[in-house]
Design a protein that fits this description.
Elements: E1 2-4, E2 7-9, H1 14-113
Antiparallel strand pairs: 1-2
Length: 114
């Protein structure tokens, strides 16, 4: 160990320098690998959050669609009941017209006969 201009310098033999260089290189590789893995993890978390949001939105869409289908079913039942009532009123009015026509004809015949 030597001090030069206020800096501390270390002296190593060739085998020690090789060993230290290997350790430094492996450390920098492991740091770069660690950084790339952490970036990949962050990307995966972002993708996972987007997937979860998409799933939630699709679940809401399913709920709304099922509610729409239920409402349409209720509307169909209401319209069927209303159609039955209108049909019933129509047939009653037709019967009334027929009876009125029969009554009018019979009154006419009776008045002509008398």
């Amino acid at each position: 160990m030597q001090t030069l201009n206020g800096d501390t310098l270390f002296c190593f033999s060739r085998p020690q320098a090789r060993t230290l260089a290997k350790l430094l290189i492996s450390g920098s590789y492991s740091d770069s690998i660690s950084n790339s893995i952490s970036l990949e993890n962050q990307r995966l978390y972002v993708v996972l959050e987007k997937k979860d949001k998409l799933i939630n939105n699709l679940n809401l869409k399913i709920e709304f669609t099922s509610q729409i289908i239920d409402n349409q079913g209720q509307n169909l039942r209401f319209l069927k009941e209303h159609l039955k009532k209108v049909d019933k009123k129509l047939t009653q009015s037709r019967r009334q017209k027929k009876w009125m026509l029969v009554s009018l004809i019979s009154l006419t015949i009776f008045s002509v006969i008398k």
